[in-house]
Amino acid sequence: MFIKKVLKIVNAINLKVCYISMVAIFVLMLLTTVNVIVRKLGIWGVPDAFDMTNLLMILIVFCALAYQESVKEHIRVDMLVEMLPNILKHIVNALFDLLTVGTLGYFSYAYYTEISRRLRSGAASQILKIPEWPFCIVVAVVSALFALTVLLNMIDRFLPKDPADSGEAVETADAIESAEGEPEENPS
Length: 188
Description:
Blueprint: H1 2-40, H2 49-70, H3 86-121, H4 133-158, H5 163-179
């Protein structure tokens, strides 16, 4: 089905974008470690470490969000929703998904408009003069990607389930178990 194919492509993109987050975490750990060591040695700290940390946190948080939605691990508070009848559950979840898509769409647009303002003003970190506008681009693009992922997941939940999909998941789980050396259970 078309939505499944698009969702698969978007999920692959989300994974690639998440790699940016992973690299940013690694760089942040290195920056923090070097900064602490240099300060303990009595030497002045890493220049602009605070601003670099803020910019790296933008990459860490925003680049991971869409991937979290892709693997359906994004935070959902559904304690009350779970008590509702099935049809109401679907309606409430769809409404919250639409609210999320709308909010993320607006957020993406707001950051898109912020790019030109940051370019005109020349906003940059204090010492190293790292420009802020590339980070606005990342937030705008990744927020739009996150909104698209939520929308596609919502549509996918309402599509009829393909019996081949559930069988494929079982076969994959069986293949993993047999690769680990555990005997497969035979229903016969």
